[in-house]
Amino acid sequence: MFIEELKLIHYRNYENELIIPKRGINIIMGENAQGKTNLIEAMFFLSRGYSHRASNVAELAQWDHDDFFMNARVVSKEVKHTLSAKSHQGKRQFLLDGKIKKRDKINGIFNTILFEPDDLKIVKEGPDKRRRFLNQEISGFRPEYHYILRDYEKILNQRNSLLKNIHYQPSLITTLDVWDEQLMQTGVRLMNHRIHYLHRLNREANNLHQVLSHGKETLSLSYLNNIIDSLEELSEIKNLYKKKLAASREEEISRGATIFGPHVDDMLIQINGKDARRFGSQGQQRSAAISLKLSQIEIYYDNTGEYPVILLDDIFSELDEHRRKSILSLLNKTQAFITCTEDIVNEGDVRPENQHIIEIVKGQVRKINKL
Ligand SMILES: Nc1ncnc2c1ncn2[C@@H]1O[C@H](COP(=O)(O)OP(=O)(O)OP(=O)(O)O)[C@@H](O)[C@H]1O
C-alpha cells in the first residue's frame, strides 16, 4: 500500500499544497514549526478518520478559514483509490472515489501505522495509555473491535449510572442482572481480541527489540486483567466473570462503579524480566515503545496481506546510530514518512536509493524528492 499524491487546501499551515511522495522512505525535513507533523497528521486523518492530536476537527482548518480539504491518491493491492476529507465548521465528511462514505467505510482503504513522541507514554505512564494503544491498534485492522469497544463503553456507562441510582432507589436492583449479562458478553469478546493480539504482539515486539538493542535485551508483554489470573483460565472466563460480579455487587453499589472488566485492563511491559515502567532507562523505554509500534508492520501484513504506510514523527531524536540504522532497515518493505530537523544521511555519505527528501521551508514544501 502506498500514497502517490497528497493535496492539502486550507489545512493547518498549508494554503494549497501538492505533495508527490515516492515509494520507499520519504524524509520530511525542516526546521521546527514548519509543518512536518502537520503532514503526518493529514495522512493519519485520511487513514483513520480522526486526528491523533486534535480532538476538535475545526482546529485543522487554516486560521481564518472555516473549511479545509484534503485529497490523497492511494494504491492498495494494485488498485488506485481517491480518498478525500473535507470539513466545514468542524463537521467532517469523507469521500472514496468521489462518493460520500461514512467514516468507518473508509477504514482499511489506506492503512497507516503512526509513531509519535507521545507514544513513549505507553511505556512510561498509567494503564489508560496502554489500553488506548491496544484499542487503537486492534481497531486499525479489525474494524469490528471498534464496535465491540463502543458497545462495551455504552453498557459500562449505563451500568455505572444504574449502580449509583440503586444506592438511592434499592428496588432498581432487579434490573442489574440484565446489564451484568450484557457487560459480560461484550467484555469477554473484548478480552478475547486483546489476548489474541497480545500473543502475536509479544512475539513480534521482542524480535524487534532484540534488533534495536544489539541482541542485549528481551522485551516481554503480559496481559493484566482482573478476572483471570493466567491464560490457563481462559476457558472459564465467563464463569469467573460472573462470580466476580456477584461477589462485588455490594461494593459496586456503594462505589457506584463497575470494578471488574476490561476497562481496567493493563499490559505489563518487561525488559530483561524487569518492569520497564519502573526500572527502564529513557533509552530502553524509547526503544520498547518503538518496538511496540513497529511490530504493527508485520501484524498488519498478516491480517491484511499488505504492508501499511508508516508515519514516524520525530523518532530519531535521542537514538544512537545503530538504532537509527536498525529502524531504517525494518522499513524496507514499506512506504514510510519520517520527520526530522536534520538530514539522516551524514555529510559525505551516499544517500541510499530508497530514500527521498521532502524539504519544508517557510511552511511550504520546497524541494520534492531531491536525491
Ligand atoms: N490551524 C492552523 N492554521 C495555520 N497554521 C497552523 C495551524 N495549526 C498549526 N499551525 C502552524 O503549524 C506550526 C506547527 O507545525 P508542526 O507541528 O507540523 O511543526 P513541525 O515542523 O513538526 O515542528 P517541530 O519540529 O517543532 O515538531 C505551528 O507553528 C503553527 O504556526
TrEMBL record:
Keyword DNA repair listed: yes
Q: Record keywords: Membrane included? A: no
Q: Which Pfam families match?
A: SMC_N
InterPro entries, alphabetized? DNA-binding_RecF, DNA-binding_RecF_CS, P-loop_NTPase, RecF/RecN/SMC_N, RecF_2
Which residues does the record give as ATP binding sites?
30-37
RecF/RecN/SMC N-terminal domain: residues covered: 2-341
Keywords on this record? Answer: ATP-binding, Cytoplasm, DNA damage, DNA repair, DNA replication, DNA-binding, Nucleotide-binding, SOS response
Gene3D superfamilies attached to this UniProt entry: P-loop containing nucleotide triphosphate hydrolases, RecF/RecN/SMC, N-terminal domain
The subcellular location is: Cytoplasm
Please state which protein family the record places this protein in: Belongs to the RecF family.
Its biological purpose: The RecF protein is involved in DNA metabolism; it is required for DNA replication and normal SOS inducibility. RecF binds preferentially to single-stranded, linear DNA. It also seems to bind ATP.
Q: What's this protein's name?
A: DNA replication and repair protein RecF
